[in-house]
Amino acid sequence: MKASRFFISTLKEAPADAEVASHRLMMRAGMIKKLGTGIYTYMPMGLRVIRKVEAIVREEMNRAGAVELTMPVVQPAELWEESGRFQGYGPELLRIKDRHERSFVVQPTSEEVVTDIARQEIRSYKQLPRNLYQIQTKFRDERRPRFGLMRGREFIMKDAYSFDRDLESAKASYKIMADAYRRIFDRFGLRYRAVAADSGAIGGDVSQEFQVIAATGEDAIVYCPESDYAANMEKAEALAPAGARPVPTQALAKTPTPGKATCEEVAELLGVPLSTTVKSLVLATDKLGADGQVESSQVWLLLVRGDHDMNEIKVSKVPGLDQGFRFATNAEIDEHFGCQPGYLGPLGLKRPVKLVADREVAVMADWITGANEIDFHMTGVNWGRDLPEPELVADLRNVVAGDLSPDGKGVLAIERGIEIGHVFVLGTKYSKPMNATFLDEAGKPQFLEMGCYGIGITRLPAAAIEQNNDERGIIWPDAIAPFTVVLCPIGMDRSADVREAAEALHGELLAAGVDVLLDDRGERPGAMFADWELIGVPHRVVISDRGIKEGQLEYQHRRDTAATKVPVAEVAAFIKGKLAA
Amino acid sequence: MKASRFFISTLKEAPADAEVASHRLMMRAGMIKKLGTGIYTYMPMGLRVIRKVEAIVREEMNRAGAVELTMPVVQPAELWEESGRFQGYGPELLRIKDRHERSFVVQPTSEEVVTDIARQEIRSYKQLPRNLYQIQTKFRDERRPRFGLMRGREFIMKDAYSFDRDLESAKASYKIMADAYRRIFDRFGLRYRAVAADSGAIGGDVSQEFQVIAATGEDAIVYCPESDYAANMEKAEALAPAGARPVPTQALAKTPTPGKATCEEVAELLGVPLSTTVKSLVLATDKLGADGQVESSQVWLLLVRGDHDMNEIKVSKVPGLDQGFRFATNAEIDEHFGCQPGYLGPLGLKRPVKLVADREVAVMADWITGANEIDFHMTGVNWGRDLPEPELVADLRNVVAGDLSPDGKGVLAIERGIEIGHVFVLGTKYSKPMNATFLDEAGKPQFLEMGCYGIGITRLPAAAIEQNNDERGIIWPDAIAPFTVVLCPIGMDRSADVREAAEALHGELLAAGVDVLLDDRGERPGAMFADWELIGVPHRVVISDRGIKEGQLEYQHRRDTAATKVPVAEVAAFIKGKLAA
Has the ipTM of the complex gone over 0.95? Predict the structure, then answer.
């Protein structure tokens, strides 16, 4: 490719609303252009990257036995009503009415359509397993689109869906996909982690996120440097601390804490570590009668250490809370605690509540909690002595760095990641409401067991940039660079030698299948180099009159601090060696 | 590819709503699946065809210097308001409101977005010419979607847009595209015609449609078998007939034609050819005052031979009608003709009208027209004698087979076609309202001269099938077949010889870059052959125990009536020879 036949458009300044490096650099490098909030044109330079991402994903999906199809962008609402998502999806689902006032959605994913296909096409267990995928435009009307392609509204996703005869087979299909994802992300040349994620009602180890490591990532990734344990924050288990509960050393006391309604304020006032405080969360569950009306309600008190964060996914798995819960009303809190939030605690209740202690709280001694009286806290609180041992102890909190690793092989560390893939066993979540069945060996209809597998095709370039950039611009991994090699001739319009050498090398590399661009725009060297450093082409060769006289061209990798002189006749072989490495 | 790893799903019966061969056969061959009216999933077998179409289009577009980008499917309404199309497009434009009640459209084409990009990116004449294209999902909310992919609502289109400094350069860009289109359609292996189309306000020879010839086509194509003249019906010029007007032989007479309000009825009643009758069309034009109100109106009478059809595009180019016209009201007709439609004519008017005679009518003698009196026609009408020679003579009608060719090289023929491509010089239709300018050599802003170039990517397979099918199914041209070659082993599960020969040939052809499928499903021969004849793979090799014993495999092209025996060792070379041919 020659630059004069391509579309290159770089900017000195990024737009003011570009907050993260990938957004700034993709705008400056002319890879994307904003059309509306969260809606971007993929400009020629950016589209080349996206096409390379697509090609690698497609190749590995095919290798893993998945078969490509393309489902419509605009989908009839009827199917979404069958699955319950037309109502359930919320305002992120873009809804449309056609000229006949029929309802449609712009697909955010395609579970409904693929399940509809499966229930028509798959009749017998003999046709299973099956895996169908597409690489197609999606739309989610995000509340807060931002960061360019990182959290856009319109985006391209690879979404695959597996169909199996039973859960065991579904897990095998899941494993094939998880393995394919590792091959895909290895080929991208990115540092990533596959982290365990919550798998909802299915349970077990059947949901993983693929996270590109980057300080700017929106997600916290928990991992153990001494083992291969890795999970996302929702999923990472907080073990009970090692060792027994310390012996009480303090007497129970009601301590004035006027105007100090948070654990932080109380710890500061009393001059104690925040980790000696315990915070209270009051929830409620309702029992419904046959008529769907609330028959009775139960109030719950959850206790977590003052310096820990409650984990909503974990709370939703506590026996008794796993069928749904809500925050308690002010009236309920008043009725049970005789006090309002800020000074709540488990002592001196007006009416009994169901108490759940976090594993950490259950082994604390001499702790501090609200006194159920405005402007007072209890200090020196101890289980067994001041209140009964907790009946229910559960993991209720987010892990923190330094927690024991759940696999017992060291302590946890936390880093930031960008989710670019997700593999998930869905079970019968869609096949049941949509009645997608097959006949088993006995001729009996069974629901299809499904899995779904996504890769954010247009998010991936952004994640790659967050991980690979410097003050001059992007540094692409070879596999997904818009061009692998750029040839920068100096004074091509003045020197026949330079022009001939550049054209010859261009032709030689093209013939060898190298994705090379010859910059024949006639820019001055400074501007030309700045452009390619911004755009982030990994391999650069400078062709100059002086170099040709010396019989040498200058090679420089985007990460190198200096150029390497390479004899003219050896440059093509040298480059091929670099690319094979 | 092996069939066991692919998704094959054929049907014995087509759905009842499939009216044309391509729709029926694509459904039966499992290439598409209906999701809603005019909305289809491209199933794996169909997607392979579409991808091949895309690849050929992409290669030739790139070769022609166009650069690919991808514009959003969901586009903000603001841009469409700038161009005037948000109001002007009509109900085919799918309109959406997002969660913030902002208006969007699902793109039917992308002139607005690409013009917006151009006005930001193109600053100087030095950046011109430019051609940007995309291959992307489009949506048109057709009033009557039908014929499967032929007239769907969601479809894939390649749309390219050129930008030039002046009309001359725009015409050069147009020619480059028209040439690229010929290469593309040649590669598809289809019989097609590039036909001149109407180019609206631009004028000149700057609009062509590419039509795949098929008896089921929706469009009439006019061509001259003795020359390369070809045009669509809207554009094809009807010349004045050769020779002078015949001498009058009949006297003018008022003839009773009770209840006969059409030319057909009158000709039948009087026992004369329909070609001796003349029909009247009454139009009106309005002159507006400074306040936008109608100041005065002019009534027009257009005359066309009874057996000819009025051509609205041609009417809209008649001087005086070219700024817009409407049908005359009943009141206007009554005021000028003293009669209502069915018996109107140019004789005995109550008030003068502006008369336009079709070229053919202008040289008629002894013709028949309405008497401006219910139940009466005038016969033996002659120009100059019974009414003044027509002041305005114009081409007002569709050509018919046998008309003189406009290039003077013979007579015209008419066949049916399916429009699969269109190249068009747009001029400043979008750049003016959207203020897309560049600076010329003098530093003066000038409007960009644009062209647009479409190919219906998903319509093309349907058109190919309309042209290439028989009672057994589809017959794909090699270039866009879902698979080029299918290997049909008989008894692969029973015979190790068959299995080994099939696997070896499969491997050998794959290594040679042939797109080959090995049918390892274990179907019985009859069902297997029927499937592949339905799906339309052009080249088939049957591998049987008997053949192997004889040292021969059976090759058959989808169009062949019998198989050719080829020595086992020569089959791969034989196939490669067939594909190179």
Answer: no
